[in-house]
Amino acid sequence: MHSTLLLLHSYVRWLVLLAGLLTVGRMASGYTREKTFGPAETRATRIFVGALDLQFLLGLVLYFVSPVTQGAMKGAADAMTDPHVRFFVAEHPLMMFLALCVAHGTSIAARKAPSNRTKFLRSAAGFAFTLGLMLAGIPWWRLTAR
What we know:
Elements: H1 2-32, H2 39-65, H3 67-74, H4 76-79, H5 83-111, H6 116-137, H7 141-144
């Protein structure tokens, strides 16, 4: 189960990043071209935030079945001295939880914006920040380790 979840979590990451990049690009374009924030933009936002929700849920389940976190919970003080274990037990989940909170907050703030231009600006900035948090929290070294 663990290896299947890990693989699924790894593949969904690319979907989330792609959706995020496309959404930020669409919002930045809408801002610079002074477009109307319409159903297509709302859909892009929902796809990105929904994909991020799915990824977070997969990660949460993975967190509780992972041998890394189960081992770390037996000796938390010792686990925090190992940078790789600390990353998966504390840093990665925290960064992704913050990214999730920022994405949802951005979605709400954009929805409540008084004008189309403000909706695009809030969305572009907030989702770009979300992507930054996600990129900082991804274990990039695992792409080359195999």
